[in-house]
Design a protein that fits this description.
seven-stranded mixed β-sheet; alpha/beta; single chain; four-stranded antiparallel β-sheet
């Protein structure tokens, strides 16, 4: 079946829904494609909050810019940093208009938190489930909008370019253009979604790793699709591992213990009960995430332990329960009373700083294709994301992409000569175990060889192992009916390859990318 829209939005987190709400109207029909349901997105799992300069008595744009540049190891694009920081307050107002409820003090001002790497209290939050509050507010607005058609449980397989019209497309082709996407529907058939403008908002890549805080839908689909379409993908080596995911073997995804808890005063200890962050950074537990994650990784390796502890027992129990009700309830369900007991934590894959390279308007290297949110590489994060900068980046760039797309869309026509998806001669895989086992192998390879600490030897081994899985999977894909399982396997292999290859190309330890072969100068 063929669908025709002005805008095709692939992904339903804060980035995709914000963009859809900004462009939808009587003369602009929007298709919002979501591979599971609107509820299941990284946005909904973000606990900490949204960074924005709001308390002008003590804070200013220059401080937020400097904190962002320092956290990014000065690899961040100054123009992108300047854009996000200065446009953040305006987008906070937009979120409030959409019904997002941020916590306030008795005097009516925002109850601001401080997190690692921030020099001031500037994190707006809703208890300890800010992302969920934002996601639910946006879902309500999207469902109310008559100009947005929602396609849940639809899986985008490939974006449509000249390649599908018989033209040879390479990475040197100057005018690659996106005409929409092939999308797997709930009946197992592949539909054509033709659009004047397409937005990629598919989120991150955490599910490439076994241990991750991301929902398991985070298989890097948009990045893999754009890479296969010969688009530019950048900075994939910079994978942020959240230092403090709840250690509970068997949980996937891992439950996140927000960085705001360390901002609140929680202290990291090893299994002997000893504090250890003083050995690694003068900022102690409030050092940026890459430093804290490597410190925990080091302590675990030195002592042969599977986790460390986060200690908040010295804080007022009622205040702790008030600020972190969801963390309190989750831990209590496992027999851990965080007001009395240490919380077992370990690092987990959390956030991608790279992705589809875009300009200040959210445009990718492929014409008529924009990318916003975690799947994009705006240059804001550089070598390491400053805590709580991601949600605000998504809405700032959704605004920029919406404005630019609206200014250009009248010049674009739908391409009606796109062929239907061709699956002639294919069949359903006889053994699903071939796919599920390969997914486990990719997860194991990435966790073992392309994790927090890397080396050339480990990356070479990852390359060789992934190469075998790539060849096997491509053969299987060509003879199989399209399914979410085979497509996700294909995508995590593509993404794993990009992370590993770009890690090999960066011959230094910088930001989140730490190489034993190139120890940092200091």
């Amino acid at each position: 079946m063929t669908y025709e829209y002005d805008y095709l939005v692939i992904g339903s987190g804060i980035a995709g829904m914000s963009f859809a709400l900004k462009v939808a109207g009587p003369d602009a029909k929007v298709a919002l494609v979501c591979k599971t349901t609107l509820d299941e997105a990284n946005t909904a799992l973000a606990q900490g909050g949204v960074a924005s300069v709001t308390n002008l008595k003590v804070d200013n744009f220059e401080k937020h810019i400097e904190d962002t540049m320092i956290a990014g190891d000065h690899l961040s694009d100054p123009a992108a940093v300047n854009k996000v920081v200065k446009e953040a307050p305006g987008q906070i107002r937009q979120l409030l208009e959409w019904g997002v409820d941020f916590d306030r003090n008795p005097d009516g001002g925002f109850d601001l938190h401080r997190e690692g790497g921030h020099s001031e209290f500037r994190i707006l939050h809703h208890l300890d489930n800010t992302g969920y509050e934002i996601q639910q507010s946006l879902i309500r607005k999207v469902r109310e909008n008559p100009y947005i058609d929602i396609y849940e449980n639809h899986f985008a397989i490939e974006i449509i370019t000249q390649h599908h019209l018989g033209k040879i497309v390479t990475r040197r082709t100057p005018d690659i253009t996106c005409y929409g996407a092939y999308v797997l529907n709930t009946d197992g058939n592949v539909d054509k979604f033709l659009a004047r403008v397409t937005l990629m908002a598919t989120g991150g890549v955490g599910a490439v790793y076994t241990t991750t805080t991301n929902p398991l839908v985070a298989t890097g689909d948009g990045i893999a699709m754009v890479y296969r379409a010969k688009g530019t993908v950048k900075d994939m080596e910079f994978i942020q591992f959240h230092p403090t995911a709840l250690y509970h073997p068997g949980d996937r995804p891992s439950f996140l213990i927000t960085e705001a808890m360390r901002g609140y005063g929680a202290v990291l200890r090893n299994l002997k009960g000893e504090e250890f962050m003083h050995k690694y950074d003068p900022r102690l537990s409030l050092a940026p995430r890459d430093i804290v994650a490597r410190a925990i990784d080091s302590e675990m390796k030195i002592n042969g332990d599977d986790h460390v502890y986060l200690d908040v027992t010295h804080k007022d129990p009622e205040e702790t329960h008030h600020h972190f009700p969801n963390i309190y309830a989750k831990c209590l369900s496992l027999g851990i009373d965080i007001t009395k007991d240490y919380i077992p934590v370990a690092p987990a894959a959390h956030y991608l700083c790279g992705g589809i390279k875009v300009d200040l308007n959210g445009r990718s290297s492929i014409d008529r294709l924009y990318a916003v949110g975690e799947c994009s590489c705006t240059g804001l994060h550089g070598g390491n994301r400053l805590a709580s900068n991601s949600l605000i980046e998504a809405v700032v760039y959704a605004e920029a992409a919406a404005r630019h797309a609206q200014s250009q869309i009248s010049h674009y026509d739908l391409r009606h000569d796109v062929p239907d998806w061709n699956d002639e001669g294919t069949r359903h895989p006889e053994e699903m175990v071939l796919i599920t086992q390969s997914i486990k192998e990719v997860n194991q390879i990435m966790g073992t060889y392309v994790g927090i600490v890397r080396s050339n030897l480990r990356l070479d081994r990852a390359w060789n192992r992934l190469d075998i899985l790539y060849e096997e999977t491509e053969r299987l894909f060509k003879c199989s009916k399209a399914s979410r399982e085979i497509c996700e396997l294909r995508n995590i292999i593509n993404v794993g390859y990009l992370i590993m290859r770009q890690a090999k190309e960066r011959k230094e330890s910088r930001g989140l990318h730490y190489m034993l072969d190139y120890p940092p100068a200091n």
